[in-house]
């Protein structure tokens, strides 16, 4: 096998990669050994800051193929013909753990898809669950801190986690999903994905519908038992990464069927009036019986990255990246992420992170952004300002963003705690589970709560389970008594 000649980063041939330049055979080292200095300097800087959330991840490239016509809902070009294909990159991840954490921890899984469309990149950065723990982004830093490490002990803290959840009953729906079988998926290939938020589509006539995106695995749902997940965390902490990489390398390409739920604004108003639920609330789902899933296409992963750091670690997603024909919604959590994700990447990867190959659009692009670290071409000789044009904004919204929607209400801080229904959908999820899955759910919860040292926290959380379904609360309380080995914990009905 022919060896490629080793050079410095500037292309200068390296004379000796085994022996440093020294004053005599015993040293000391000479500062003029630039290859040694460059090698150590780069090594010291090999780690970019890890993601605050979704730090441990895996990814692959593939394609999305349209199988059904949805042009009545959207003018987005990637959907303009059945059979049309678009290149994609998909990054899976755990949420709360650090980069060295185990793939099999009980945690939601990130499911972030980038579509390299002819109108630019569309980033659908979702999870493997259709709901989330909170509905307002102002709570997000506090929530994530409770899932990380206690600043005093530097240990994960059951007291912190359950203190937050027990004071935020809106989290109950996602907590129920998290401690069910789906809280420990069997790798990344055997789980569904969701855009989770409410988004929108806009057609050629400027008509908007609200939508939710679903990715249904063709490999079938498979989950790990709590015991097997713990075993794998100790014996193969990179289990999901290995499974995905090996499957693609063997030609066993994972696929997901892509679906939409669609809601007109008139349907939204009628549904909200009937149910009392907010269609833009991330802690809620749209029941399939009210809004059936509509088939759209197939997503396939068929190529592993050549370099993990370049393609997976430096992948920088932002839900703000939508293309003409796609749009946002008043979902408060989505609105917060439109700012936070891009801002995080500016800090983590750098101001020119969009120029890296995995992040660069695959269509022509032009802007007036200049300078900063890693400004590779820096726009060349093109002007670094835009000429002011009298016609201003494209009123029909064929550019970035969307055509806009009507706003309602006065500006202010609205606290709906105690007036919104945080229990029905969590109870519906519990009742939907087969008896054996209910048993595992309540066992998992009892095991987790047994580590909580503050009785008031346990009482608050048991009250939430009971309000969702009396049997739900009773089973967790019964099993928690067995786990804790003490007197039964009382349930304060209606505690907040």
From TrEMBL:
InterPro entries: Catalase, Catalase_3, Catalase_AS, Catalase_clade1/3, Catalase_core, Catalase_haem_BS, Catalase_immune_responsive, Catalase_sf. Transmembrane segments: none annotated. The keyword rRNA-binding does not apply. Its EC number is 1.11.1.6. GO terms for biological process: hydrogen peroxide catabolic process; response to hydrogen peroxide. Keywords: Heme, Hydrogen peroxide, Iron, Metal-binding, Oxidoreductase, Peroxidase. It holds the Pfam family Catalase. PANTHER family: CATALASE. Belongs to the catalase family. This is Catalase. It comes from Ramlibacter pinisoli.
């Amino acid at each position: 096998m022919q060896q490629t000649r080793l050079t410095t980063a500037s292309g200068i041939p390296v004379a000796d990669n085994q022996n440093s330049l020294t004053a005599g055979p015993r040293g000391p080292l000479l500062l003029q050994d630039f290859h040694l200095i460059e090698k150590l300097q780069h090594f010291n800087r090999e780690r970019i800051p890890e993601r605050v959330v979704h730090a441990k991840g895996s990814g692959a490239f593939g394609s999305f193929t349209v199988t059904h016509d949805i042009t009545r809902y959207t003018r987005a070009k990637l959907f303009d013909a059945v059979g049309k294909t678009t290149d994609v990159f998909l990054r899976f991840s755990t949420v709360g753990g650090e980069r060295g954490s185990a793939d099999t921890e009980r945690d939601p899984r990130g499911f972030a898809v980038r579509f390299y469309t002819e109108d630019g990149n569309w980033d659908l950065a979702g999870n493997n669950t259709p709901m989330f723990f909170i509905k307002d982004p102002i709570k997000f830093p506090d929530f994530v801190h409770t899932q990380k490490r206690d600043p005093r002990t530097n240990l994960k803290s059951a007291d912190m986690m359950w203190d937050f959840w027990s004071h935020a009953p809106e989290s109950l729906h996602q907590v129920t999903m998290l401690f069910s079988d789906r809280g420990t998926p069997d790798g990344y290939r055997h789980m569904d994905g969701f855009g989770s938020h409410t988004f929108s589509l806009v057609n050629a006539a400027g008509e908007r519908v609200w939508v939710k995106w679903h990715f249904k695995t063709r490999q079938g749902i498979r989950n790990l038992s709590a015991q097997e997940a713990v075993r794998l965390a100790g014996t193969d902490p990179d289990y999901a990464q290995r499974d995905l990489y090996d499957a693609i390398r063997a030609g066993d390409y994972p696929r997901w069927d892509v679906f939409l739920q669609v809601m007109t604004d008139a349907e939204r108003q009628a549904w909200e009036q009937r149910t009392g639920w907010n269609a833009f609330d991330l802690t809620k789902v749209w029941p399939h019986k009210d809004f059936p899933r509509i088939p759209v296409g197939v997503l396939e992963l068929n190529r592993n990255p050549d370099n993990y750091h370049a393609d997976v670690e430096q992948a920088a997603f932002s839900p703000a990246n939508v293309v003409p024909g796609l749009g946002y919604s008043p979902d408060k959590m989505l609105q917060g992420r439109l700012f936070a994700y891009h801002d995080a990447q500016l800090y983590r990867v750098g101001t020119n992170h969009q120029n890296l190959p995995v992040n660069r659009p695959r269509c022509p692009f032009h802007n007036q952004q200049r300078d900063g670290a890693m400004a590779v071409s820096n726009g060349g000789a093109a002007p670094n300002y835009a000429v002011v044009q009298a016609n201003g904004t494209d009123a029909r919204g064929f550019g970035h963003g969307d055509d806009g929607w009507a706003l309602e209400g006065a500006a202010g801080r609205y606290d709906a705690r105690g007036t919104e229904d945080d229990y029905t959908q969590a109870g519906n999820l519990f009742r939907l589970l087969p008896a054996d899955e209910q048993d595992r759910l309540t066992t998992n919860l009892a095991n987790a709560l047994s580590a909580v040292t503050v009785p008031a926290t346990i009482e608050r959380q048991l009250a939430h389970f009971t309000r969702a379904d009396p049997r739900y609360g009773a089973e967790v309380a019964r099993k928690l008594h067995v786990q804790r080995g003490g007197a039964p914990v009382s349930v304060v009905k209606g505690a907040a």
